[in-house]
Amino acid sequence: MTPAVIVHGGAGAVPEEEFAARLEVLSRARLAAWEAAAAGDAVAAVVAAVTVLEDSPLFNAGVGSALNREGFVEMDAAVMDGETRACGGVAAVRDVRNPVQLAREVMDSEHVLLAGEGASRFARERGIPACDPASLVTRRQLERWRRARRRGDGEKAGTVGAAVMDSRGRLAAATSTGGMVDKRPGRVGDTPLPGAGNYAEAGLGAASGTGYGEYFVRALATYRAVSALRQHQPQRALELAIAEVAALGGHGGMILVDAAGRSWWHHDTAAMCVAWRDAAGEGASCRR
Ligand code: GLY
Question: In the annotation, is 210 catalytic?
């Protein structure tokens, strides 16, 4: 069957002059996902797409992650296989260039979530080398952090993700983030928590969220959207999930692939850059 792929680069106040550059990277991520999805491996597809986005300094994940209150990068990531409901996540990791690849390794372990130093040690066990934490810091994030320190408020959005149905009909989702600028050290958001920032379930859909993580956790936002597919059309399911986040006080966006192989997205922020491809065609946009 024809696969379906959708990838996002975070919801928030994306400057218009950056739309083209972001959409170019998202299109490359879409292609990476498409090739693996066509080969029948939805999990490999979402990991490949998110790896491309983590490698780009334009997004708040991997290289280019936000800095915490002490000026360090601490990243969260997750992968979920809808077919088996297996999931893996990492939280507050400081020295791994591609946290989504480490989350994929956790998915194959006896645990579902590893944090901090333990996650780093597990990375070494699995042959993922340590990177210099300074190599993840970009000038742009350093400036954003300095601004946040001066004004006392930090950017609450960012995050990258992918949702896929492969040529065998298997669903998967992956999400990765540097979290909020100026967050407390040790803060973990929605991204690595199954059902909060990332979720996939066979027969229903796969979803990845972006936005103010604390509210996505309280809303169980991606689980809410995927579960709502039992009663609602996919666009409505996304709207209901983001409305629940907003009712609690947060904002953001979400992508979703349904079990019929269609890609969907919704956000209540100024912008959200996405790229998609499915049986109906392909596209890329920073506004709905
Ligand atoms: N949604 C990303 C975060 O709040 O960490």
Answer: no
CB of 211 closer than 6 angstroms to any ligand 1 atom: yes
Beta bridge partners of 253: 210, 267
Q: Are 200 and 80 in contact (CB under 8 A)?
A: yes
pLDDT, tens digit, 9 for 90 and up, residues 211-253? 999 999 999 999 999 999 999 999 999 999 999 999 999 999 9
| Backbone dihedral angles phi then psi of residue 54, each to the nearest 5 degrees | -65, -30
Domain count, the chain: 1
Structural domain boundaries enclosing 193: 4-285
Distance of CA 255 to the CA centre of its chain: 9
Residue 169: CB atoms within 10 A of its CB come to 18
Task: Tell me how far the alpha carbon of residue 180 lies from the centroid of ligand 1, in angstroms.
Answer: 6
State in Å: Cα 68 to ligand 1 middle. 12
Q: Which pLDDT does position 13 carry in this prediction?
A: 87
- DSSP 3-state of 20: helix
Distance CA 194, CA 17 (A): 34
Determine the distance separating the centroid of ligand 1 and the alpha carbon of 1, expressed in angstroms.
34
Q: Identify which of 160, 208, 216, 220 to mutate to test ligand 1's pocket (most ligand atoms within 8 A of the CB).
A: 216
**Strand arrangement of the beta sheet that strand 171-177 belongs to:** 113-115, 86-93, 75-81, 171-177, 160-165, 4-12, 271-278, 281-285
C-alpha R_g of the chain: 17
pTM equals: 0.97
Asked whether 81 lines ligand 1 (CB < 6 A), one says: no
Query: What is the atom index within ligand 1 of the atom nearest the CA of 210?
Result: 1
Q: What is the CATH number of the domain that holds 151?
A: 3.60.20.30
